[in-house]
Specification:
CATH topology of the largest domain: Four Helix Bundle (Hemerythrin (Met), subunit A)
CATH class of the largest domain: Mainly Alpha
Strand content: 5-15%
CATH superfamily of the largest domain: dinb family like domain
Distance between the termini: 20 Å
Protein backbone atom coordinates (compact mmCIF):
# COMPACT_ATOMS: atom_id res chain seq x y z
CA UNK A 1 0.00 0.00 0.00
CA UNK A 2 1.33 3.41 -0.92
CA UNK A 3 0.95 5.48 2.23
CA UNK A 4 -1.50 8.35 1.95
CA UNK A 5 -2.47 10.67 4.73
CA UNK A 6 -5.58 9.99 6.74
CA UNK A 7 -6.83 13.46 5.88
CA UNK A 8 -6.70 12.63 2.17
CA UNK A 9 -8.95 9.62 2.61
CA UNK A 10 -11.36 11.50 4.85
CA UNK A 11 -11.61 14.34 2.35
CA UNK A 12 -12.36 11.87 -0.45
CA UNK A 13 -14.90 10.00 1.67
CA UNK A 14 -16.65 13.25 2.56
CA UNK A 15 -16.71 14.65 -0.99
CA UNK A 16 -17.73 11.40 -2.69
CA UNK A 17 -20.52 10.65 -0.21
CA UNK A 18 -21.96 14.11 -0.65
CA UNK A 19 -21.82 13.82 -4.44
CA UNK A 20 -23.44 10.38 -4.34
CA UNK A 21 -26.45 11.79 -2.47
CA UNK A 22 -26.73 14.84 -4.74
CA UNK A 23 -27.00 12.69 -7.84
CA UNK A 24 -29.20 10.04 -6.19
CA UNK A 25 -31.74 12.68 -5.17
CA UNK A 26 -32.67 13.24 -8.82
CA UNK A 27 -32.98 9.61 -9.94
CA UNK A 28 -33.90 7.22 -7.08
CA UNK A 29 -35.72 4.85 -9.43
CA UNK A 30 -33.10 4.74 -12.21
CA UNK A 31 -31.54 1.37 -12.95
CA UNK A 32 -27.84 1.00 -12.19
CA UNK A 33 -26.14 -0.48 -15.26
CA UNK A 34 -23.01 -1.46 -13.34
CA UNK A 35 -25.06 -3.24 -10.64
CA UNK A 36 -27.64 -5.27 -12.63
CA UNK A 37 -31.01 -5.58 -10.91
CA UNK A 38 -30.46 -2.60 -8.63
CA UNK A 39 -32.05 0.81 -8.70
CA UNK A 40 -30.36 3.86 -7.27
CA UNK A 41 -32.35 3.59 -4.04
CA UNK A 42 -30.99 0.05 -3.57
CA UNK A 43 -27.45 1.26 -4.05
CA UNK A 44 -27.93 4.09 -1.54
CA UNK A 45 -29.32 1.57 0.95
CA UNK A 46 -26.29 -0.68 0.41
CA UNK A 47 -23.85 2.19 0.95
CA UNK A 48 -25.71 3.37 4.05
CA UNK A 49 -25.44 -0.11 5.55
CA UNK A 50 -21.74 -0.41 4.69
CA UNK A 51 -21.00 2.95 6.31
CA UNK A 52 -22.71 1.86 9.51
CA UNK A 53 -21.02 -1.55 9.37
CA UNK A 54 -17.56 0.05 9.06
CA UNK A 55 -18.36 2.55 11.81
CA UNK A 56 -18.87 -0.26 14.32
CA UNK A 57 -15.36 -1.63 13.82
CA UNK A 58 -13.78 1.79 14.21
CA UNK A 59 -15.97 3.16 17.03
CA UNK A 60 -16.20 -0.06 19.05
CA UNK A 61 -12.76 -1.46 18.31
CA UNK A 62 -14.18 -4.82 17.27
CA UNK A 63 -11.31 -7.28 16.82
CA UNK A 64 -13.11 -9.90 14.75
CA UNK A 65 -15.72 -10.03 11.98
CA UNK A 66 -19.32 -9.74 13.14
CA UNK A 67 -22.33 -11.48 11.57
CA UNK A 68 -24.03 -9.39 8.93
CA UNK A 69 -27.28 -9.72 7.02
CA UNK A 70 -27.43 -10.81 3.40
CA UNK A 71 -27.69 -8.21 0.68
CA UNK A 72 -31.33 -9.18 0.15
CA UNK A 73 -32.05 -8.62 3.86
CA UNK A 74 -30.28 -5.25 3.77
CA UNK A 75 -32.35 -4.04 0.84
CA UNK A 76 -35.59 -5.38 2.30
CA UNK A 77 -35.10 -3.61 5.62
CA UNK A 78 -33.80 -0.27 4.36
CA UNK A 79 -35.68 2.97 5.00
CA UNK A 80 -38.50 4.24 2.82
CA UNK A 81 -37.45 6.24 -0.21
CA UNK A 82 -38.58 9.54 1.30
CA UNK A 83 -36.29 8.97 4.33
CA UNK A 84 -33.42 7.35 2.47
CA UNK A 85 -31.17 10.31 1.74
CA UNK A 86 -31.35 11.62 5.29
CA UNK A 87 -30.64 8.13 6.63
CA UNK A 88 -27.69 7.92 4.22
CA UNK A 89 -26.37 11.31 5.35
CA UNK A 90 -26.52 10.32 9.03
CA UNK A 91 -24.62 7.09 8.41
CA UNK A 92 -22.02 8.80 6.24
CA UNK A 93 -21.38 11.56 8.76
CA UNK A 94 -21.29 9.03 11.59
CA UNK A 95 -18.53 7.14 9.81
CA UNK A 96 -16.56 10.32 9.23
CA UNK A 97 -16.92 11.28 12.90
CA UNK A 98 -15.75 7.84 14.04
CA UNK A 99 -12.68 7.94 11.80
CA UNK A 100 -11.79 11.48 12.88
CA UNK A 101 -12.15 10.59 16.58
CA UNK A 102 -10.27 7.28 16.43
CA UNK A 103 -6.75 7.11 17.89
CA UNK A 104 -3.83 6.58 15.51
CA UNK A 105 -3.09 3.28 17.27
CA UNK A 106 -6.66 1.99 16.90
CA UNK A 107 -6.90 -1.78 17.26
CA UNK A 108 -9.70 -3.44 15.33
CA UNK A 109 -10.36 -6.04 12.64
CA UNK A 110 -9.39 -5.35 9.05
CA UNK A 111 -9.04 -7.58 6.02
CA UNK A 112 -6.38 -6.14 3.71
CA UNK A 113 -2.76 -5.16 4.38
CA UNK A 114 -2.41 -1.57 5.59
CA UNK A 115 -0.07 0.51 7.76
CA UNK A 116 -2.77 0.57 10.46
CA UNK A 117 -6.40 -0.45 10.98
CA UNK A 118 -7.39 3.21 10.98
CA UNK A 119 -5.82 3.84 7.57
CA UNK A 120 -7.32 0.59 6.29
CA UNK A 121 -10.89 1.63 7.13
CA UNK A 122 -10.45 5.19 5.90
CA UNK A 123 -9.02 3.94 2.61
CA UNK A 124 -11.56 1.16 2.12
CA UNK A 125 -14.55 3.42 2.76
CA UNK A 126 -13.16 6.19 0.57
CA UNK A 127 -13.01 3.77 -2.34
CA UNK A 128 -16.29 2.02 -1.49
CA UNK A 129 -18.01 5.38 -1.65
CA UNK A 130 -16.17 6.57 -4.76
CA UNK A 131 -17.00 3.44 -6.75
CA UNK A 132 -20.66 3.68 -5.81
CA UNK A 133 -20.73 7.40 -6.62
CA UNK A 134 -19.63 6.34 -10.10
CA UNK A 135 -22.48 3.79 -10.13
CA UNK A 136 -25.03 6.49 -9.32
CA UNK A 137 -23.67 8.80 -12.01
CA UNK A 138 -23.81 5.96 -14.54
CA UNK A 139 -27.44 5.41 -13.55
CA UNK A 140 -28.21 9.11 -13.92
CA UNK A 141 -26.73 9.10 -17.41
CA UNK A 142 -29.38 6.57 -18.47
CA UNK A 143 -32.15 9.11 -18.00
CA UNK A 144 -30.30 12.42 -18.44
CA UNK A 145 -28.03 12.93 -21.43
CA UNK A 146 -26.45 15.92 -19.68
CA UNK A 147 -25.41 13.90 -16.63
CA UNK A 148 -21.68 14.19 -15.90
CA UNK A 149 -19.33 11.36 -14.95
CA UNK A 150 -17.02 13.07 -12.48
CA UNK A 151 -13.33 12.13 -12.89
CA UNK A 152 -11.61 10.63 -9.85
CA UNK A 153 -8.57 12.67 -8.71
CA UNK A 154 -5.33 11.15 -10.00
CA UNK A 155 -3.82 10.20 -6.64
CA UNK A 156 -7.04 8.70 -5.33
CA UNK A 157 -7.61 6.73 -8.54
CA UNK A 158 -4.07 5.33 -8.53
CA UNK A 159 -4.49 4.34 -4.89
CA UNK A 160 -7.76 2.58 -5.75
CA UNK A 161 -6.06 0.63 -8.54
CA UNK A 162 -3.42 -0.41 -6.02
CA UNK A 163 -6.06 -1.47 -3.48
CA UNK A 164 -7.63 -3.74 -6.09
CA UNK A 165 -4.49 -5.22 -7.66
CA UNK A 166 -2.30 -5.35 -4.54
CA UNK A 167 -5.04 -6.19 -2.05
CA UNK A 168 -8.34 -7.72 -3.11
CA UNK A 169 -7.07 -9.66 -6.12
CA UNK A 170 -4.01 -11.07 -4.36
CA UNK A 171 -5.73 -12.55 -1.34
CA UNK A 172 -7.89 -15.30 -2.87
CA UNK A 173 -5.20 -17.93 -3.46
CA UNK A 174 -7.79 -20.69 -3.77
CA UNK A 175 -8.94 -19.04 -7.00
CA UNK A 176 -5.50 -19.60 -8.56
CA UNK A 177 -4.88 -22.80 -10.48
CA UNK A 178 -1.21 -22.61 -11.50
CA UNK A 179 -1.07 -26.29 -12.47
CA UNK A 180 -3.69 -25.67 -15.17
CA UNK A 181 -3.14 -21.99 -15.93
CA UNK A 182 0.24 -20.32 -16.49
CA UNK A 183 -1.52 -17.00 -16.13
CA UNK A 184 -2.37 -14.20 -18.51
CA UNK A 185 0.16 -11.38 -18.59
CA UNK A 186 -1.19 -7.90 -17.90
CA UNK A 187 0.49 -4.49 -17.75
CA UNK A 188 -1.52 -1.52 -16.46
CA UNK A 189 -0.01 1.93 -17.00
CA UNK A 190 -1.61 4.93 -15.31
CA UNK A 191 0.15 7.58 -17.35
CA UNK A 192 -0.81 10.68 -15.39
CA UNK A 193 0.09 8.99 -12.07
CA UNK A 194 3.36 7.61 -13.52
CA UNK A 195 2.59 4.18 -12.06
CA UNK A 196 2.72 0.73 -13.66
CA UNK A 197 1.46 -2.66 -12.46
CA UNK A 198 2.89 -5.78 -14.12
CA UNK A 199 1.36 -9.13 -13.21
CA UNK A 200 0.00 -12.47 -14.30
CA UNK A 201 -3.66 -13.17 -13.72
CA UNK A 202 -3.74 -16.80 -12.55
CA UNK A 203 -7.37 -17.76 -12.31
CA UNK A 204 -8.70 -14.61 -10.68
CA UNK A 205 -5.59 -13.91 -8.63
CA UNK A 206 -2.99 -11.22 -9.35
CA UNK A 207 0.55 -12.56 -9.14
CA UNK A 208 3.02 -9.68 -9.43
CA UNK A 209 5.90 -9.97 -11.91
CA UNK A 210 9.19 -8.10 -11.86
CA UNK A 211 10.65 -7.19 -15.21
CA UNK A 212 9.23 -7.76 -18.66
CA UNK A 213 6.40 -10.07 -19.71
CA UNK A 214 6.91 -11.58 -23.18
CA UNK A 215 3.18 -11.92 -23.94
CA UNK A 216 0.73 -9.61 -22.27
CA UNK A 217 -2.23 -7.30 -22.51
CA UNK A 218 -1.12 -3.70 -21.99
CA UNK A 219 -3.56 -0.93 -21.21
CA UNK A 220 -2.56 2.72 -20.89
CA UNK A 221 -4.77 5.57 -19.82
CA UNK A 222 -5.50 8.05 -17.09
CA UNK A 223 -5.64 6.75 -13.55
CA UNK A 224 -9.33 7.73 -13.39
CA UNK A 225 -10.18 5.72 -16.52
CA UNK A 226 -8.24 2.66 -15.40
CA UNK A 227 -9.66 2.82 -11.88
CA UNK A 228 -13.17 2.75 -13.24
CA UNK A 229 -12.44 0.01 -15.77
CA UNK A 230 -10.58 -2.33 -13.43
CA UNK A 231 -13.43 -2.06 -10.93
CA UNK A 232 -15.84 -3.10 -13.72
CA UNK A 233 -17.41 0.31 -14.32
CA UNK A 234 -16.89 0.37 -18.08
CA UNK A 235 -18.32 3.02 -20.39
CA UNK A 236 -18.43 3.14 -24.19
CA UNK A 237 -15.49 5.56 -24.41
CA UNK A 238 -13.22 3.00 -22.76
CA UNK A 239 -13.12 1.03 -26.02
CA UNK A 240 -10.87 3.74 -27.46
CA UNK A 241 -8.03 2.96 -25.05
CA UNK A 242 -5.40 0.65 -26.58
CA UNK A 243 -5.71 -2.80 -25.04
CA UNK A 244 -8.99 -2.09 -23.29
CA UNK A 245 -11.05 -4.58 -25.30
CA UNK A 246 -8.56 -7.36 -24.53
CA UNK A 247 -8.61 -6.43 -20.84
CA UNK A 248 -12.40 -6.43 -20.74
CA UNK A 249 -12.48 -9.86 -22.40
CA UNK A 250 -9.94 -11.19 -19.89
CA UNK A 251 -11.75 -9.67 -16.90
CA UNK A 252 -15.04 -11.14 -18.15
CA UNK A 253 -13.71 -14.61 -18.97
CA UNK A 254 -12.12 -14.93 -15.53
CA UNK A 255 -15.01 -13.26 -13.74
CA UNK A 256 -12.69 -10.82 -12.01
CA UNK A 257 -14.60 -8.96 -9.32
CA UNK A 258 -14.32 -8.00 -5.68
CA UNK A 259 -15.58 -10.56 -3.21
CA UNK A 260 -15.50 -10.30 0.55
CA UNK A 261 -14.75 -13.81 1.76
Amino acid sequence: MEARRLDDYLRALSDEGRRLREVAADCPDAGVPSCPGWRVRDLVTHVGFVHRWATRYVAEGLEGPIPEPSEAEILATGPLTEDLLEWSRVGHEGLLEALRAAPADLRCWSFLPAPSPLLFWARRQAHETTIHRIDVELAASQCDTDAVLTPVPVDLAADGIAELLEGFLRRRRRDATPEDDPGAGVVIVAEDAERTWTFRLVGRVVVPVEGQLPDHVEVRGSASQLYRMLWNRWIAADATLPGSSELRRLWGERRVRVTWE
